[in-house]
Write a structure and sequence with these properties.
It catalyses: DNA(n) + a 2'-deoxyribonucleoside 5'-triphosphate = DNA(n+1) + diphosphate. This is DNA polymerase III subunit delta. Its EC number is 2.7.7.7. It is built from 16 helices and five strands. It is α/β, with parallel strands linked by helices and 317 residues long. It is globular, with a radius of gyration of 24 Å. The model has no long low-confidence stretch (mean pLDDT 89).
């Protein structure tokens, strides 16, 4: 196929895939001339078409990369006509590469025309609660790094790294150097890979259960491990938004399917555990906490750093 459309929320994996394609289509000596990124604006699409139709410089092929596929959603008729005329004629050594976090919009005439000549690859981000999916991701990554881990070590990484594919790559590369071909167990890796994900989960539960001392201890540990305040708050907001939707849905006697839809649960089986988690907490507390966390996020983004005292105060709501 002369066109490849790659999309998904796992931006790290998409970046790695782009690097693989660049190495496959271009030669190192001529990459600077034959890998071309175009501006993310509709007016640049014509430039991309012209570039992908011309022969490469020197050896190897050429990649023309549109880095935001959403610009194709609203194309003028002349662009659509140009696609019809040129896409079937792209030189076989060239590739029109389109990447996007969003799925191609099949309603767009330009996208419809493009997809007739395109190979699609999807890189979805595994849900942070999908432990089985994350374990499979780690198992696959271990083969790439020629690394062997004991089952307990893999379970530790599931909790410690979660669905962060960028960090997974970095940590496994470090462990592979440390291992020198030997199989590692949890004692080997626990002092090399910090477990901040579990700490964020513990912090959310401590706040929900009004345990200020526990929350403070976890928070100080997170900050000591250089965890960014905005990332911590974003994680907390995600937890409390899901908890609030679940609690409100239960109180309103909504069906499990309805609650799962409102909470954006990809796997409805997760709802059983969420219901258990909110049994002893009121919807009012969850709502007040969520509002306070959103306000804290806004303050942090505007440069007001009152992070730790605010988190402790939120525990008393």
């Amino acid at each position: 196929m002369p066109v490849k459309f790659i999309y998904g929320e796992d931006t790290h994996s998409i970046s790695k895939r782009v690097e693989q394609l660049i190495k496959y289509f271009t030669t190192q000596e001529w990459e600077i001339f034959n890998y071309i990124r175009v501006d993310n604006k509709t007016s640049a699409i014509s430039q991309a078409i012209i570039e992908v139709m011309t022969i490469p410089f020197g050896e190897g092929g050429k990649i023309v990369h549109i880095t935001d596929g959403t610009i194709l959603n609203k194309c003028p008729d002349e662009i659509i006509l140009s696609f019809k005329e040129t896409l079937p004629k792209i030189p076989k050594q060239n590739l029109l590469l389109i990447t996007s976090q969003s799925k191609p919009d099949g309603r767009s005439k330009a996208v419809k025309e493009l997809l007739q000549h395109a190979e699609i690859e999807e890189f979805p981000l595994i849900s942070s609660w999908d432990k089985e999916g994350i374990e499979k991701l780690i198992q696959a990554a271990l083969k790439t790094h020629f690394l062997k881990l004991a089952p307990t070590a893999i379970s530790y990484l599931v909790e410690a790294i979660g669905n962060n594919t960028a960090r997974l790559d970095s940590e496994l590369a470090k462990l592979a150097i440390y291992a020198q071909g030997e199989k590692l167990d949890i004692e080997d890796i626990s002092h090399l890979v910090s477990n901040n994900n579990t700490s964020c989960t513990g912090l959310a539960h401590a706040i929900k259960n009004s345990k200020a001392n526990t929350a403070a201890q976890i928070l100080y540990r997170l900050l000591d491990n250089n965890e960014h305040a905005l990332k911590i708050v974003a994680t907390l907001i995600s937890y409390f938004r899901t908890w609030l939707i679940t609690k409100a849905g239960v109180e309103e006697k909504l069906s499990d399917n309805k609650i799962s839809t409102l909470a954006s649960l990809n796997n409805p089986k997760r709802l059983y555990f969420l219901k258990k988690e909110v049994e002893t907490v009121s919807a009012l507390k969850l709502k007040q906490t969520l509002i306070a966390l959103i306000q804290l996020e806004g303050e942090l983004k505007s440069g007001i750093d009152n992070f730790t005292p605010t988190i402790i105060k939120i525990c008393t709501l």
